[in-house]
Hints:
Blueprint: E1 2-5, H1 9-31, E2 34-38, H2 45-52, E3 61-65, E4 67-69, H3 80-87, E5 98-100, H4 108-119, E6 126-129, E7 152-156, H5 159-167, E8 180-184, H6 186-190, E9 194-199, H7 205-213, E10 231-235, E11 249-250
Amino acid sequence: MNVVMCRSTKELGARAARDGAEAIRNAIRERGAANIVIPTGGSQVEMIEALVGEPVDWTRVSVFHLDEYVGLPVTHPASFRRFLRERFINRLPARVAEVHEVNAEGDLQAECQRLNRIIGPRIIDVAFVGIGENGHLAFNDPPADFQTREPYIVVNLDEACRRQQVGEGWFSRLDEVPTRAISMSVQQILKARRIICSVPDQRKARAVQAALEGPVTPMVPSSILQTHQGTTVYLEPASASLLTRVAATSAQ
């Protein structure tokens, strides 16, 4: 795992997007196509906006969605499918080869099975992810399942995760936040050749410290990134403010 220190959130997004785009271009050169995982949420806005502007042949790229709330319609402002469409897919200069959204409005097990059949044989070239305030990775809240090999699973959302969604303005009250989601599993994320992890904001500082400097534990799901040699974590001064031991290179 590598850590890159950026001077601002904007620089963080630009650097993460640039490095991720280079990995996508490398995959296209090697195999003629690329498979990527795209996250959604407020902390990923800068990275996604920058990624849209990167010179990539998007017609050769297949996109997998990271997670979605159970029962939330795509018309809801907090829908991650809506976020994915409006902030990424619809802003690309060309149509991607495939988009595999997570639809958690119907039969959850059937949806997981559908997605698992599609992603199972794929090489994932780049997984773009973040870290939650409770240390979660995707919607794998603590204690996360580090063992399952199923690519997509149904998970329970803990209160800290749900309060983060209220704090970010996606919901007005805690009781409006769904208690379950379909999420890409931890082991599926770790299958990616490259993991680009963008983590801005002071409110993520404690989670960043636990993930990067603490033990690898299901109680801090994102700590598993320490075990993946192809992971790069992008921080800025606020999100890195509690680190004491991890050495970071400066963004170039």
